[in-house]
Amino acid sequence: MTVLRLVGVTLPDGLARELFVLDGRITFTRPAAEVRTIVDGGWLLPGLVDMHAHPGLSHGDAEDPFRAACADLLDQGVTAARVPGLPVPLPPDADTDPELPTLTVAETWLLHSSLGEGMSLHRHVDDLGAAAAAAARPGGWVKIIGDWEPDADPAPLDQVRAAVLAAHAAGARVAVHCQTAAGCAVAVAAGVDSLEHGMHLDHALLPTMAAQGTAFVPTIATFADEAERVRSKPAGPRRDWYLNGLDGLAPSVAAAVEAGVRVFAGTDSPPRSGLADEIGHLHRAGLSTADAIGAASWAARDWLGWQGLVEGAPADLVALDTDPRLDLAALRHPRLVLLRGRIVRSQAVS
């Protein structure tokens, strides 16, 4: 059996290290076996994590949009993703398929009937608590649509709170889509685990979010990608609502970090530039380059219960030629990507 060897500066600790991959896992002790060096110099970081992905929602021209999207994630160095709403059935072997990134999934979007039609992907329910109990899986996620139309009431607080209690009782966590101030307020009052998008977020909610551990996944890039199209539309309340909400996201991120709220990087599947674009938005909003990278790598992994570059961890990692803390553009050009010890992208190894 050939052992893979990588030499480089590991992140986030910034140490020059030598690591090995044996049976798909990381070890820092040289095994007594043939060694093949695949990286000799550069920077090594835990595989990236898209914290808000919907694989299968894009890549509609592909024969299998889900697998095409997953392949695109891997090519970017995204070896894991949180999927708060899956538009296609999850393959039964997703947990063991060597071609797929590690996924933690909410398989459906739950929309309370009071919110109206929503989207065709949404599952309309009258009882969010019962629906969450049925959808929850230990270690997984439940996705709730907290609001929909900008001028309409959000999901009822008692319904969202019941869903949170039911999901937590089953060992799952709850992510809530919110794009209005009222929707954000309901989500935070209900004690959700993550606030998705958070347009028009009232900063007065941030201390509560920090205290109860509600994370913030702003998905700035996906809204920014649409900004030019929205600006071309005639002036009106909906246009203003969207653009004002987009303009408020960066200040909300900065305020969230200041308040101690965990902020993570997610693409909403995906913006044209991928996860690196969202990392850039987080940095421009006020995160240091290291923290912006961590929001899509080691910090995200820690929050989800996945390991980084530690002894015995699955060998999910990205190798870069230059230090991404000095130039985030390095993330767009990974030299090598390992998924559970298997090379899925390489510019240096045939």
From TrEMBL:
Domain Amidohydrolase-related positions:
157-343
What are the recorded GO MF terms, alphabetically? hydrolase activity, acting on carbon-nitrogen (but not peptide) bonds
According to the UniProt entry, the coiled-coil residues are none
First and last residue of the signal peptide: none
Q: Which InterPro entries would you find in this protein's record?
A: Amidohydro-rel, Metal-dep_hydrolase_composite, Metal_Hydrolase, Metallo-dep_Hydrolase
- Annotated keywords: Hydrolase
Superkingdom of the source species: Bacteria
Entry-linked PANTHER family: ALPHA-D-RIBOSE 1-METHYLPHOSPHONATE 5-TRIPHOSPHATE DIPHOSPHATASE, AMIDOHYDROLASE-RELATED DOMAIN-CONTAINING PROTEIN
Q: What is this protein called?
A: Amidohydrolase family protein
